[in-house]
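Question (not urgent): is this output format expected?
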Amino acid sequence: VSQTFAEMMFKHGFVHCDPHAANMLVRPLPSSKASILGMIDDKAWVAMAVVALPSPSAALVLLCSLLYPVDLKPPVLELDFNTRSNYAALWKALIFADAKGIKECSIKLGVGEDLYPLFAGVLTMRPWNRVIDPSMDHLVIQGSESDRSELQMYASEYFHEISELLRRLPRVILLMMKTNDCLRAVNNTLIQGSSLETFFIIGKVSSEAVIEAKLSQSKSVVTWFNIKLDKILLEMRLWAMQTALWLLRLRKALAWSH
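Got this back:
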């Protein structure tokens, strides 16, 4: 699920904005080639994306009902290039605790220079000091009572600032925030909280999308070379992150065995 929606948001810009449990199902992958869009009947569209499920013959199917009032559109959003690129760069900065990058991308998305820490907090459900914490698990939500109490306190304390933030943001970003909340709820149901693996996937896909966007706009050999160098450095960083994940899993497995 994380892989599918990360690629939708950061690479393709064609996003299903209502990813709750009732809009998802897993089915055998059809033997014949099928369109990514198809109709179950005359009332619902199906968007199908193959993800890394335990069985290579399985597919994740996303349902999108067309039973909406005339003045509303189905919950499918198409992001323009700049919005998609900036949103991917923002999540890359969030994953790697890059305060400067978070500020720059937030401003480009319409947040303003004064509310970008709050925007980062709303997206991640973590306070600013945790958002910019360099530790690898800085965005992981444990779901403990103290976590919930902390979030409630911040929501109450910054109510007016949150209202102003929502007023400033473009509609497409509000829909992306809704999608983000829905995905968080799905993850909570599937794995009882957020996980390092989820954030690794988001970091990897968003970083790849940023590199691809830069390459598509490069106009000189020097720029192209610099982007390729950035890509190599990024891959090394992701490899280090993946290695740390393996070590953490091993440590947990050893602790559990004892």
